[in-house]
What does this fold into?
Amino acid sequence: MKKTLLLNHPLSSVIASMGHTDMLVIADAGLPIPPDVERIDLALVAGMPPLIDVVKAVLGELQVERAIVASEMRERSRSMREALSDVLVHVPMSDVPHDEFKLLTRSARAVVRTGECTPYANVILVAGVVF
It folds into this structure.
C-alpha cells in the first residue's frame, strides 16, 4: 500500500507527472470543466470533500509556486478566501476575473472536482520546483 499522503491514483499520477508551471485546478462542485482537460472527480455529496481539505492534501505532494483565484471570491466568499490564504500562507496568490479563471482552466493538467458548494471556491495551483 502507498505510504505517502495521497491515496487517489489519478490525482497522485497527475501530480507525479507535473513540471514547473504546470497548473492543477482544485474546483468546487459547479465549475465547468473543459472537455479536453482531465477530470478527477472526488465529489461525493454536497460539501464532501471540502475544497480546503483537498488543497491541504495536494500541498503535501505538490511544490506550489503560486496560486490563482477568482477576484469575485473577495466579496462573495470572503471566509473561503481567508481559509485559502491561511493554507497557502507561503504561496503568493493572485486574483483574476472569474471568466478569465475559467479560460485558464483550459490549460490545466487536470481539474480536481470537490464537493465544495461555496460560490467561486476554486483555486489554480501552479507547480514550482523543489530545487
